[in-house]
Known about the structure:
2 domains, 202 residues
Amino acid sequence: MIRQPKFKVCxxxxxxxxxxxxxxxxxxxxxxxxxxxxGKRPKALSDYGSQLREKQKIRLSYxxxxxxxxxxxxxxxxxxxxxxxxxxLENLESRLDNLVYxxxxxxxxxxxxxxxxxxxxxxxxxRTTVPSYNLKIGDEISVREGxxxxxxxxxxxxxLKNLVIPAWIKFDVTKMIAKVIGKPKEFDSMFDPNAxxxxxxx
Length: 202
């Protein structure tokens, strides 16, 4: 995947796309830019442009390629009896790298993907190095015994003291074991999945 400067992407799509942009540095940068462009009216987006932007927001936030994202869309629209937006949410949230991020073991999804690739996690007793590994209800994810002493996992309890864990995940921070106990219910408010599905239905 071709990487673009994160601040530049966030200016175009919004600060919620990358964790790096949810910082004071980015806020100050945006304030300076707004002052410099004061009085200039932004160009209105077409319906296509708005849908494309929503697609990019979700895809880049979860760190998946165009090809991967298209497969998730196909999967979401092919299943009968379930709303496509909910299935798309499940496809993205059930990735192993996303769960590592959601429970706070990785500060970003990018780092979560790297940590999984380096073999730091065990899924149902087996070492897994596939960031896109699809988790299901009942799956248990733990930090590999040989990785627990690494700097990545030092003082985990202190780091996660104020973190709110999603309701569909049960996490024992002392043992560093997470278990999928349900399914994610809704997208973050910054995303508009319906616009994304409309984009792919063209």
